[in-house]
Design brief:
The protein has 148 residues and is α+β, with helices and mostly antiparallel strands. The chain has four helices and six strands, in the order ααββααββββ.
Length: 148
């Protein structure tokens, strides 16, 4: 009985370690892609193929200002909102963040704090959350949520 219990503990810790390593590799890949997109945008070399490869067809954007009440923008409109999206991609802060996998929604999430809380003014802080979904063997950028 002890051997079985030890085996189960070892087995579950092994899979937990493997899953953590997998998340670290996924985060590394996402950060490389985000840095490339940001750099190419700043150098004005970001093309439609890169956008097609990296962004989902329907992109949720809480920071994109459009005329409709809908926060989802179509792939064809992403170019119009890159000036809103790119500043939220803070590579330095995202590097320090944890990656989370949400199995229910089949998505990965990276987030960071954009403003620290201030107890003197009762300001609770602000955060940015970036969502990625696996699509056709690639992780695609599917949304930004900024929480004031």
């Amino acid at each position: 009985m002890k051997k079985r219990l030890l085996f189960l503990i070892f087995f579950s810790s092994f899979f937990s370690f493997q899953a953590q390593q997998n998340l670290s590799e996924i985060k590394k890949e996402l950060l490389i892609n985000l840095k490339t997109i940001q750099k190419n945008y700043e150098n004005k070399t970001l093309d439609n193929q890169q956008i097609l490869d990296f962004f989902c067809e329907n992109f949720y954007c809480s920071v994109c200002e459009n005329n409709s009440m809908e926060s989802t923008i179509k792939f064809q409109e992403i170019n119009n909102y890159l000036q809103d999206i790119i500043p939220i991609i803070n590579y330095k802060n995202l590097r320090k963040s944890n990656i989370i996998y949400d199995s229910e929604n089949n998505q990965y999430t990276l987030g960071y704090q954009t403003a620290k809380p201030n107890p003197k003014t009762d300001f609770e802080g602000a955060s940015a959350i970036l969502h990625f979904k696996p699509k056709n063997g690639k992780l695609k950028f599917c949304g930004i949520l900024v929480i004031p």
